[in-house]
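User: My collaborator sent over this chain with a note saying "see what the structure looks like." That's all I know about it. Can you take a look?
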Amino acid sequence: MKIERIEMALLQVPLHTPFRTALRCVDTTEDVVVRIRTDDGHVGHGAAAPTAVITGDTRASIVGAIRQSIAPRLVGLDARDLNRTLQAVHGAIQRNTSAKAAVEIALYDLWAQHHGAPLYRILGGGDPALRTDITISVDDVEAMVAAALSALDRGYDALKIKVGQDIATDLERVRAIHSAVGTRARLRLDANQGWTAKQAVRAIRTVEDAGIALELVEQPVPARDLDGLQHVTAHVDTPVMADESAFGPTEVLELLRRRAADIVNIKLMKAGGLSHAVRIADLAMLHGVPCMIGCMIESSISVAAAAHLAAARPDAISLVDLDSPALAQYDPVEGGTVFDGPRIVLGDGPGLGIGEIRGLQPLEN
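Assistant: Without extra context I'll predict from the sequence alone. Here is the result:
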């Protein structure tokens, strides 16, 4: 099972509606798709989403990192030797977490194919059925309420409300959605680094005093402001989740040491792939801190890998935010994981079980 070559292609899928946060607005899923081919005919699939405002990775940087640094280290290695191939990926280049994630996903896919079982079973087993929340993007109040009610009609019972631009308007959004939804869905708030620590404490306390029980508030302060994150966590009753502050195991260990967050959000694009994501989940579980599995605006290729991890680590990963495939107009991937609104069902084929991928485009750089 020697690695013969690594191919890349571009995959773009339009979203139903623009995805708006405090950091950006996106109307299309854009992935760099990786296919690793071996000498015995196996193909491992992976993908990376360029998210420059969060990871610093662009399409060009992902392609360049894989083509110039990572791929030359992997060609000729045996895909069955996962430890060696992962060491080659992480030793090839610093940072570039999205590029590493795409290649790692493909390597794990091949490794599980070799063992003849779905990836989640090789990683530890678990229930192949998951439920995800759905994101309510930043918009005017009426539009966000309408989106929340539409989500309920489609079977979602957890809503992730994007805020973080203007506190007064943010509070109006939360109150209006809570009034419309009532107890029919759990509400999660994501400020995407949009507040200062003082603003966050004031805003969250205002929501608490209004009798609105939020399941969590995600990344209320800038990623590097660990003092601010720690302050917010200590001064509100609502659980606070670290996202952009929690990239890899090193950053997460510091968060855990400082008790700077109540929950950790794991994303493969931040962590640099499945190997570091597994470490984060295990570290958090040792410290008694629950995790969410999340994603960027990604195709179902990489989101499927995240879902396999969540299924394999249910004791550590109790919250699921893998709604990106549901935001897209269609799923270009045949086979493997089924994304059906709030329901995610993992396939029983070897690895990720991915078949044909529609709409792949050649990459020029």
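A starting point for your reply to your collaborator: Residues 121-345 form a domain with the TIM Barrel fold (CATH 3.20.20.120).
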